[in-house]
Amino acid sequence: MIASKNRGKISEIRTLLQDIDIEVLSLNDYPEFPEIVEDGRTFLENALKKARTVSEMTNEIALADDSGLEVDFLGGRPGVHSARYSGDRATDESNIRKLLEEMKGVPLEKRGAAFRCSLVLYRKDGIFRSFEGTLRGRIALEPAGKGGFGYDPVFVVPERGKTLAELLPDVKNRISHRAKALMKLKRYLQKKE
Question: Which of 78, 94, 102, 114 is deepest in the core (most CB within 10 A)?
Fold first, then answer.
């Protein structure tokens, strides 16, 4: 059970786990599922809370992630507040606008950033495993690309010379912070099969 309703995230997870013989459901299969308040101070705390809550309420093995963008110049912000950076009614576009406004005038060499992902696999018996993934890059001067979601249009992957939103999905799914955490999870699951 993926502890998320985010279609982009769910699609990414399903794609990366498609060759493992498991049934993958999400909170979209449970429309009445209550919102889980993400009030942790770290990505791991939020992922663990979501996974535990979903596992306890569905009696299924739950997979939850919390991930976000940490910008060096902003002291690690938006961090755990990435999804709601521009307020309670935040959209990808409003979050990007706020970020670029705060980064206005910052030279390229000081625009370093990292996407971070904490992934938690929580079993019904309360035992859990966590997996981490990081992707370093920099914040672009303006959005570019139509793919991806969230901050992808302004996150430049230096080795590729493009934003995540400009990369083909299969490329992004190999190099992203979530992909790195999911590959660790996948190796773990394959050992357990």
Answer: 78
Q: Does domain 7-192 have CATH number 3.90.950.10?
A: yes
Q: Is 33 helix (H, G, I), strand (E, B) or coil?
A: coil
Active site residues: 66
- Please answer whether residues 5 and 13 qualify as being in contact, where contact means their C-beta atoms are separated by less than 8 angstroms: no
- State the pTM of this model: 0.87
Q: Are 117 and 133 in contact (CB under 8 A)?
A: yes
Residue ranges per domain, the chain? 7-192
Residue 136's DSSP bridge partners are: 114
Spatial neighbors of 153 by CB under 8 A, at least 6 apart, are 96, 140, 143, 144, 145, 163, 164, 165
193 pLDDT more than 70: no
8 Å CB contact between 166 and 145 = yes
